[in-house]
Sequence to fold (139 residues):
Amino acid sequence: MKLLIKINKLQVWEFEVNPTDEFSIEFQQGDATRARKVFEAEIAMFEAFRKQYPGVKRGLETEFHNFRKKNSDWKECLPMLLPSIMLEKDYKVKEKFKTGFAPAWPILSKWINERRWEQEFSSFSPAPNLERNVTFQTE
Fold:
């Protein structure tokens, strides 16, 4: 089965997954190590999101474990992560153009812990009477 994640009209991520197959991932929890069963599609979706995240991030297992631990509704939230990152990237680019400033990206675990995929962004409208004077110098 193919998992297609559409980001925009031009970008589509494709993964080969078998949603009925389960595999184990090892998570460290204090001194005890235990295996958790997760579907390949869920890992692939989270990894696609993690790779697109522009800030500082830790490994797949660590970040996925944190995501599952902090969010009891993680299965419902998982499909929202990648689209929300793409929206936030676009918003930050537009804000940087509009105001000259965009805040730095927090580390991924903070982004997850604060459930930032739920944040709403104001619509972008250029500042009135904004003139951009660009000059090029040649020597």
In short: Residues 21-36, 128-135 have pLDDT under 50 and may be disordered. The CA atoms of residues 22 and 138 lie 61 Å apart. Residues 2-118 form one domain.
